[in-house]
Recover the amino acids of this structure.
């Protein structure tokens, strides 16, 4: 791969990328009532769409009923406007999924300790890419209730807090910190429902500050496409470009996520370079986001330097076999109280009754609890509108700063430091009784006496 040639082609690389991706889809023509529906087999070609459409997690009667309900939403953003059945959910909330990026946080520790400015970006971008292994899970996390939080401790010296800032549009914010780095994100996902697939646009701002030198890194990830939502086996792809920029020096990493081609060609593959501020390639990066990533110093044409060798920077940790939800060992810990701090907030995602019921495989109770929470949330919204009140986040401040993204502008939320003060007070207190946190009732509510 020669980066200079890519620039001369005026987007030729991406033209070929998206041409091969768009040609992958196969259209169902033989199923009555579903003509024109795209079904994609990541392990096949164009001739097996109808066979692939019969596969998947849905029973036929459920699939048909759900399709009839969803047809009217084609072309719409369905992030929070559609009530979905718990059969497609995993027992985590979106706030917990945000914390999942902390699994390989040791890479940020290494980036902070690294004196080579280009190798530092290799570590940091590998950390950012590591989340894509978990993103291949095809289960949907629960949408957080307004005011819901998630706390994570006892992992890499990190203190992590996330909070749901807004319900519609859904906006979440998170802050993590240890002795090496701080991590801040405001996330406002947008979606576009396309019938049997959905495009997910990561409208957000992610900033990492490495403490030793005060280096600030900005991350722009690619969009994601979830294929075969209703017909066929659901699978995920994220073709496109990931950009990480060192805002302090102007150095950057550009990684290209290859699209899945016919019979799985190119699936999972990632290639790219670390560039200096003059946009000269310094290190090439290559690998697969579901296995490992490697790096090697390169010349100005992007070719490996003579005498250098390819070195591994990251590898996926061992994962449980036959886990129903395809959880990693770290994902399992996200629901454990072993990763919870002392005096867990009652608004924590671990305490959601619908999430817990699904974890115990009680779909009926999970569905009814989910409906109850959603109705309580609607009641709170009506009460705020009637009284002229506005929801105020506890741990983050909504600022007037607007951050542009490739998919729209974002209202930036900033960590206000109050959680650090609260946690320090709790951890230093000897008077707090240790209660059975598992019996704590989930309580993100602003008002206490509304009918559930």
């Amino acid at each position: 791969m020669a980066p200079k040639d890519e620039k001369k082609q005026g987007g030729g690389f991406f033209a070929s990328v998206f041409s091969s991706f768009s040609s992958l889809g196969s259209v169902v023509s033989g199923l009555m009532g579903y003509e024109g529906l795209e079904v994609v087999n990541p392990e096949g070609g164009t001739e097996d769409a109808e066979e692939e459409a019969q596969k998947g997690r849905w029973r036929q009667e459920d699939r048909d009923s759900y399709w009839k309900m969803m047809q009217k939403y084609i072309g719409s953003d369905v992030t929070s406007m559609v009530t979905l059945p718990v059969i497609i959910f995993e027992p985590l909330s979106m706030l917990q999924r945000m914390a999942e990026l902390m699994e390989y946080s040791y890479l940020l520790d290494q980036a902070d300790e690294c004196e080579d400015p280009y190798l530092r970006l290799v570590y940091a971008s590998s950390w950012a890419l590591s989340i894509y292994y978990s993103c291949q899970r095809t289960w949907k996390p629960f949408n957080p209730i307004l005011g819901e939080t998630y706390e994570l401790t006892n992992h890499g010296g990190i203190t992590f807090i996330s909070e749901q800032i807004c319900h519609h549009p859904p906006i979440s914010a998170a802050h993590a910190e240890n002795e090496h780095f701080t991590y801040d994100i405001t996330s406002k996902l947008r979606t576009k429902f396309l019938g049997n697939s959905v495009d997910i646009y990561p409208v957000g701002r992610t900033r990492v500050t490495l403490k030793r030198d005060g280096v600030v890194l900005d991350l722009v990830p690619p969009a994601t496409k979830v294929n075969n939502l209703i017909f066929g086996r659901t699978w995920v792809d994220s073709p496109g470009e990931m950009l990480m920029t060192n805002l302090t020096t102007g150095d950057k990493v550009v990684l290209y996520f290859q699209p899945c081609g016919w019979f799985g060609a190119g699936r999972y593959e990632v290639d790219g370079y670390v560039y200096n501020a003059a946009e000269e390639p310094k290190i090439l990066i290559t690998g697969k986001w579901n296995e490992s990533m490697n790096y090697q110093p390169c010349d100005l044409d992007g070719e490996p330097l003579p005498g250098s060798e390819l070195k591994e920077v990251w590898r996926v940790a061992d994962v449980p076999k036959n886990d129903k939800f395809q959880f990693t060992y770290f994902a399992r810990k996200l629901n454990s109280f072993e990763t919870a701090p002392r005096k867990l907030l009652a608004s924590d995602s671990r305490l959601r009754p619908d999430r817990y019921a699904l974890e115990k495989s009680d779909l009926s109770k999970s569905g009814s609890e989910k409906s109850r929470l959603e109705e309580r949330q609607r009641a709170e919204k009506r009460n705020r509108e009637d009284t002229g009140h506005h929801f105020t986040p506890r741990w983050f401040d909504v600022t007037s700063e607007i951050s542009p993204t490739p998919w729209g502008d974002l209202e930036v939320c900033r960590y206000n430091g109050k959680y650090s003060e609260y946690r320090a007070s709790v951890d230093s207190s000897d008077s707090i009784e240790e209660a059975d946190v598992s019996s704590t009732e989930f309580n993100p509510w602003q008002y206490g006496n509304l009918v559930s």
The mean pLDDT is 87. The first strand starts at residue 26 and ends at 28. The two ends are 59 Å apart (CA to CA).
